[in-house]
Amino acid sequence: MTEWRIKSRALPIGERTLVMGILNVTPDSFSDGGKFQALDNAIGHAEEMIAEGADIIDVGGESTRPGGNALVSMEEETQRVVPVVEALAKRTEIPISVDTTKSEVARAALANGASIINDISALRFDFYIADEAARTGAGLILMHSRGSPATMHRLPPVADIFEEVIHSLRSSIHMAERRGVNREAIVIDPGIGFGKSQEQNLELIARLDRISEAFPDLPVLIGTSRKSFIGRVLADDAGTPPPPEERLNGTIASTIAAVINGAQIVRVHDVKATVESLKMIQAIKSASRMS
Ligand code: 9MG
């Protein structure tokens, strides 16, 4: 058992799987009722996920969906994220993570109650993110991706996805440590759906143990929730994928497969279903240790 150091505290790693609940605060996730209504809705949704057993809430103000082109300015992203982080930090003890690739947004969120930075570019877009983590002792999630969210779905696939993910994460970890981030604050993530082919997404989950073996001291996070690769597997005979909200069964199956193969933290929209599935897996694992 190890610990993930985040600011002045630590989360236990390996005791049980940690669940990170996704809180999107992009305009498409806002209600029509204006800014205050949007804030209320976001806080309500976060509180619901906490009641359902979330260990961390991940607040994101920029859509990083592969193929999406919704890049926002630093000012706009800060305005979306910081009020939610600030209000949430007053209401909950659980760690709040900020899903951003911009050091200025990370700094503002950390100053207002966030304690983890979730960087889907693993420092490729803005390496000063590492300085914010180093200065505050915040947790730092380094997620593998290729290209940018706008271009990654068009990139030709690499020949060996494990070599690519391991090599790229190694250089991000090296950069983070060189800029003063404590290794015990770092979590790695293979970045399912970000610049990988359909087969490579499935392979990464099937052989996630290869990633854990390459970085035996670092916790592994996985995010499969509602992603397109699940839609492609569940598509009907005409090839039409179910909409994201109807990908729960595929999400649970892929999340549990990743946990069996070594993931210690999972990032999901559907917290209750995930927590219950993890409890079941935990009970089965405990029974296997008894016999
Ligand atoms: C923001 N975001 C979207 N997908 C993600 C994933 O798989 N991992 C992490 N860490 N963040 C993600």
What is the chain-wise order of helices and strands? EEEHEHEHEHEHEHHEHHEH
Helix content: 40-55%
Please state the overall shape, judged from the principal axes of the Cα atoms: globular
**Total beta strand runs:** 10
Bound molecules: 9-methylguanine
| Helical segment count | 10
- Would you identify the regions where 5 or more consecutive residues have pLDDT less than 50? none
Helix/strand structural class: alpha/beta
Distance between the termini: 22 Å
Taking the sheet with the most strands, its summary is: 8 strands, parallel
What is the CA-atom radius of gyration, in angstroms? 18 Å
β-strand percent reads: 15-25%
How would you summarize the topology of this molecule?
Blueprint: E1 2-6, E2 9-13, E3 18-24, H1 34-51, E4 56-60, H2 74-91, E5 96-99, H3 103-111, E6 116-119, H4 128-136, E7 139-143, H5 161-178, E8 186-189, H6 198-206, H7 208-214, E9 221-222, H8 228-233, H9 248-260, E10 265-268, H10 271-290
Parallel strand pairs: 3-4, 3-10, 4-5, 5-6, 6-7, 7-8, 9-10
Antiparallel strand pairs: 1-2
Helix pairs in contact: 1-2, 2-3, 3-4, 9-10
Bound molecules: 9-methylguanine.
